[in-house]
Amino acid sequence: MGPDPLGRRPGGWVAGLVLVATMAAPAAAGFNDLLQVICDVDNFIVTGCDVTHDGLTFVHTVAVSPDDKHVYFCSSLGDTGQKESLSAYGRAVDGTLTLIDQEIEDSGGVTTLRSCRGVAVSPDGKHVYTAALSDSAVTWFQRVTSMVSPDFGKLSFTAGDAIVSGGPGGHLAGANAVVVSPDDKHVYVAGRSGDSVAVYSRDATTGDLTHLETEFDGIAGVDGLDAPEDLAFSPDGKHLYVASENDNAVAVFARDANAASATFGRLTFLEARFDGVAGADGLDNASRVALDPSGANVYVAGQRGSAAGDWFAVFARNTNAGSPDFGRLTLLQSFQSTALVVSVECTGVGPSDSAIAVSPNGLFVAVAQPFFGALATFSRAADGRLTLVEAICDELLLDNDDIGAISDLAPSADGKHLYSAGGPFSLLSVIDYECDSPNVDLTLSSQSISTAKSETACRSITLGPDYDVLAAGSLTATAPRISIASEVSFVGEASLINAVP
To answer: What is the pTM of this model?
Structure first.
């Protein structure tokens, strides 16, 4: 057994000062407060939401611009009033959204948005890419990036800015998800019916794509790509992770990230982790995948139905570039929502993708469970393991109606808000993700320190059997002093005592 998070040795104590902090436990940190819910005008299910917008029928995916100023939603179905659309919303300081633009199927030259199921904003913010399942197409739109322009955040389409490749062997058959590499150089598209991942080089000025290669399930040793649903890159751009529903798997590809290489951007299959095989678990109907900002962990969520089954899995990612296992995964945890208190008296919407998102600071992971109508917040430990902090649910379709429908989540870059696509209810929502627990008084005392600090408790880290630390920042103990960074508070009694020989 190794040292605890403050360095205390088994049977001994951490070297440092005597610290005693005693106080009553504060109220639980409050997450997931609804700020705004926007419904399609043809939606007659949810009450109490803004129903002035059209083109939101079964909004399947959501993406936030890198500058944190705009949020983009893609609808996967048309209705009697409007066909499928890509909707652009301006983001206010308080996180609320205002519709500023829509690109609509069969309007303005756009003809490749049928069953739009994927949306991504390039890291440079210049383009928005969509993946349309029925059209087997990837489409790109120019985004206005000038903050002084009255059209800031709006989109424009140029004839020819789309690639269609369906049918047997098509590179984009059943295009289902799209992601742009962190270096802005390439775009990757998952083909659900093609069991494929297509690779394109990207012109950063025009957004134009040029096909480089396609990885197909069952060809050249590739596995784990039966019905790929989602894609996610490691922050270093060296690995691509693919969640595949029919294979109950996450596939791992190495990406050539060397711009001077002749194979720059191409993929090499590394491994596939299948549910119930070689120690992997929690991957049943894998449909969403996300990584933490450091790239140390991979989180995979599944599509949940009525029967008890997997909700999501937590993997450690090998980050040693010199290791032959670089990029490969090791299971840390697997979760079933029925095993946690997140579905009591909740009402969901039927089988749907369970959304998953990691906060930009890496401290929290949000997971939606549409079938049971739940949205849960987990605190993330240093090794990536998760502990449930709070869960809210849709109560018999009377309150928090958007919680019962969430199929995709995207956090704002500042970490203050979550944006959700609620496909089954044809709505989108803004969720306040800031901790709002009351301030607490903390007195630190030792032989050389006597100070007071009032902060907000936002993260729970267990330090031992008798005490916890709630922190959004970090607590460090360095002899002969102790320092507190960012937001920290204590619950119960915490003691740091000089080392005992």
So the answer is: 0.84
> Among positive and negative, which fits the CA dihedral 85, 86, 92, 94?
positive
Strand pairing category for 467-471 and 460-464: antiparallel
Low-confidence ranges of the chain (pLDDT < 50): 1-29, 436-501
127: left (phi over 0), alpha (psi -120 to 50) or beta: beta
Strands 427-432 and 175-180: unpaired
pLDDT, tens only, 283-298:
999 999 999 999 999 9
HSE-up of 305 (CA within 13 Å, CB side)? 5
pLDDT score, position 45: 67
Give the Cα separation of 75 and 114 in Å (integer): 9
Kindly report the number of other CB atoms within 10 A of residue 160's CB atom: 8
Question: How far apart (Å, rounded) are the C-alpha atoms in residues 80 and 318?
Answer: 49
Q: What is the pLDDT of residue 395?
A: 67
> Residues 421-433, buried b or exposed e (16+ Cβ, 10 A)?
bbbbbbbbbbbbb
With beta carbons less than 8 A apart as the criterion, state whether 157 and 135 touch.
no
Contact yes or no for 366/375 (Cβ under 8 A): yes
CB 201 within 8 A of CB 265: yes
Q: Which of 238, 371, 260, 253 is nearest to 309 (CA)?
A: 371
Q: What are the Cα distances from residue 206, in Å, to 129, 203, 252?
A: 12, 6, 30
b vs e for 483-501, b when ≥16 Cβ sit within 10 Å of the residue's Cβ?
ebeebbbbbeebbbeeeee
Phi, psi of 401 (to 5 degrees): -60, -30
pLDDT in tens, 126-153: 999 999 999 999 999 999 999 999 999 9
The answer for residues whose C-beta is within 8 angstroms of residue 37's C-beta and 6 or more apart is 46, 48, 49, 50, 401, 402, 427, 428, 429, 430
Q: Tokens for 135?
A: 């059209």
Residues 6+ apart with CB under 8 A from 133: 76, 114, 115, 116, 117, 174, 175, 176, 192, 193
